[in-house]
Amino acid sequence: MSDTYVPLISSGVAGPLGVVHLPRLWQKVSLEERAKLASGYPAVGKGFDAMTLAALGLQEQAVRDYIKNNKPTYPQFEAWVKKNAKSLTREAIDKHNAAVRGYNHDDETRKSILSACGIADDASAPKGGVNLNNLEDWHEFHQAVLK
Question: Whole-prediction pTM value?
Answer without folding.
Answer: 0.94
